[in-house]
Amino acid sequence: MVHHYHYVIVLLLLFFTSISSHQHHDHDHDPSIISTMEQFSGYSILEPTSFSSLSYDAQALQNQIDELSGFSDAPAPSVTRVLYTDKDVLARRYVKNLMGIAGLSVREDAVGNIFGRWDGSEPGLAAVATGSHIDAIPYSGKYDGVVGVLGAVEAISVLKRSGFKPKRSLEVILFTSEEPTRFGISCLGSRLLAGSENLANSLKTITDSQNVSFLDAARSAGYARDEDDLSSVFLKKGTYSAFIELHIEQGPILEDEGISIGIVTAIAAPASLRVEFEGNGGHAGAVLMPNRNDAGLAASELALAVEKHVLESGSVDTVGTVGILQLHPGAINSIPSKSHIEIDTRDIDEERRNQVIEKIHETAIRITKTRGVKLTEFHIINQDPPALSDEAVVNAMETATKELNLTSKLMISRAYHDSLFMARVSPMGMIFIPCYKGYSHKPEEFASIKDMSNGVKVLAFTLAKLSLQ
Ligand code: GLV
Ligand code: MN
Ligand code: MN
């Protein structure tokens, strides 16, 4: 960081010194030069020497990522950190502590979205926000989401150490439950921030697989003290002038092409479904094959149909996954009487994804006829549209990568992120960094210190620029 930053600043200084020397003799002390430089560079130029103190602590970030990965219900290198569990609460405490050390004022809302704020010189203006999540799906890795939270705190610390003074306030957001693991709802915190009335209502009655209600779980973690309070989470219009999320790519493109930074232009449209079949069950030896209506085979047939319908779209951009398939009673010598399957399907083309959902529904109904089972549930949990990044935010990120002499590429995010929902209430942009072989949602997930440093630098520059606009 110090190198590039110095280089840029030295060039800027030479540039402005040479221009201004034609106009002023005592330019060293002319405040208008300072303010012109501020406009050009996007940074608060106090005095040239203050930039020498700019430092980026890459090793500290890595240490924090390693420490945070210790708050896990799975043995290392796997990470399992599920919403409102003891490990999640400890991890949250760890992040709040880091926010405090960075000098941010910390606030939490009713579902546990955490905000760390650095007041700008004009705190009444809409703030510039950044952030991501720290929950981790079962047996996953330590970088997904975490880089965008700890990296954001570090980006702000970098700016503070440089002597930069934001005009708009800067905020780091830790979003509650980006992952759908516990209650089946993805991007729970950001979906609610974006004002989803449906979600605010359903959270009052929803339970997890152990029959623990959302509200009880939230209260056990210290949140949701007032049941009717969940709409208090909704963001007021114009709270943020921009939102930027730093994240690992979770795909192989940047690494394959040797590019440092991905600038996200759009996020693909995700959907998820819950389907349940019921049959008569019975004894695995005594009930003969013609007399069965096996709910497990109904679910298996539907799982294969998901793959078929996705492939029928003819586009590599259409994907579908059955990640959950549960049978009841789950005994080797009992014909499944109930089955439960959860389906994730996505596309950059919303219409095409909706056609896949329609076909899955038709097939589920056909299976009830051919197998004599009941379709006791066909529930579309979420069916979200895609989101587009904001042009001005994209431009700011591109300028930042250029100033830092980093290679970059415009790309689509096939994974979903809290940014998908923040885009509903704020201009949005995302910064991707390469990750090893594109691995994610598994323990082999890895991002190098160098790539994370690049991401944090681009984030810091972008925040700085947007905070002055
Ligand atoms: C996010 O975790 C996703 O599944 O895209
Ligand atoms: Mn994830
Ligand atoms: Mn993520």
UniProtKB/TrEMBL annotation:
Transmembrane regions listed in the UniProt entry: none
Domain of life: Eukaryota
Pfam family, one: Peptidase_M20
Top-level enzyme category: hydrolase
EC number: 3.5.1.116
Pathway in which the depicted protein is active: Nitrogen metabolism; (S)-allantoin degradation; glyoxylate from (S)-ureidoglycolate: step 1/1
Signal peptide per UniProt: 1-21
Gene3D superfamilies (alphabetical): 3.30.70.360, Zn peptidases (3.40.630.10)
GO cellular component: endoplasmic reticulum
Keywords: Endoplasmic reticulum, Hydrolase, Manganese, Metal-binding, Purine metabolism, Signal
CDD domains: M20_bAS (cd03884)
Cofactor: Co(2+); Ni(2+); Mn(2+)
Compartmental location: Endoplasmic reticulum
GO molecular function terms listed in the Swiss-Prot or TrEMBL record: hydrolase activity, acting on carbon-nitrogen (but not peptide) bonds, in linear amidines; metal ion binding; ureidoglycolate hydrolase activity
Reactions listed under catalytic activity: (S)-ureidoglycolate + H2O + 2 H(+) = glyoxylate + 2 NH4(+) + CO2
GO biological process terms held by the UniProt record: allantoin catabolic process; purine nucleobase catabolic process; ureide catabolic process
Subunit architecture: Homodimer.
Family: Belongs to the peptidase M20 family.
Annotated protein name in UniProt: Ureidoglycolate hydrolase
Species of origin: Medicago truncatula (Barrel medic)
Species classification: Eukaryota, Viridiplantae, Streptophyta, Embryophyta, Tracheophyta
Gene: 11425622
